[in-house]
Amino acid sequence: MDTLNQASELLRSGGLVAFPTETVYGLGARADRPEAAARIFQAKNRPSFDPLIVHFPDLELATRWAVFDDRARRLARRFWPGPLTLVLPRTMHEGTPRIPDLVTSGLDSVGVRVPDQPLALELLRRADVPVAAPSANPFGYVSPTTAEHVRQGLGSRVDLILDGGPCAVGVESTIVDLCGDHPRLLRPGGLARELLEDELGCPLEYGGFAPPVRTEAPGMLESHYAPGVPVEIFEDPSHLHARANALHGRCVLLSERGLEGIPCLDSIAMGEGPAMAVSLFATLRRLDNPVHERILALLPAPQGLGLAVRDRLFRAAKSRLGAAHPIG
Ligand code: TXA
Ligand code: MG
Question: Whose C-alpha lies nearest to ligand 1, atom 12?
């Protein structure tokens, strides 16, 4: 049996399959069977109040599980398959929601998306069931962008890992909530905010990065997208320079264009916008070695994919303060 058939059979029978998407690798299970989806939360150590995104091979199938209004259809037609998740009302069947509470954390809405990755689309087509999939990493750690990252983080906790090579986008999907009158940006991601606003013809409401809040259960959510080596973020290169001096150069620098003349162990030029996004998580993982002591990152401007990169760097850094983050 070929691997794709094996993977789709595993999904159908309630198993856990990690698969590539264009954003990050996902940890998939049937979304219509609570006992299958429950395995995702166990494998990731994910708290049950963090809802999962449900994946489909096309818009047509997604409309059976979520209610699409005109705006939702417009965005789906223009940007699917692609790095966009739409939060929409759940559809009902004989008085019960089709997507169970466990997947939506009890919300009446569900996040749905059609990924732009050929292996993922073929898997979803063959499985012919809605597939819940968060990023395939232990809760709180940096998301995986290669099959090897998944193996390192979850290994034997997954029934099968499909290898589709490195992810083309590198940061998670952009999440837009269309349940209210005003479309809201819940998470900046692989699809630029400007393109969405252009198609909608109105601005997206966006709260930005929530200020750190201490949780009732300290330790629960204290790290997110966070490597073990502390990350510090800077808007201004001169402040970064001063910090590197204070650290006597025992730090690695991350920036779009590269920083010169600053004492450091290494200065990594990541490229602008999509280039910085595509290698961000792999770079954070590679640098996650105590010899680096500190990662100092110069934030990109909040335009295009820069907004998503800022958000992930913010989370990687703020998490050291014990902040609570609602986004997985
Ligand atoms: O790119 C992606 O979106 C990847 C790939 C695998 O598709 N998935 C992903 O899933 O990033 P995850 O679990 O790491 O992030 C899902 C986030 C949740 O933490 C939550 O913030 C939001 O999506 N979400 C899901 N359903 C929601 C809902 N009904 N209402 C509000 N937010 C929701
Ligand atoms: Mg995640």
Answer: 134
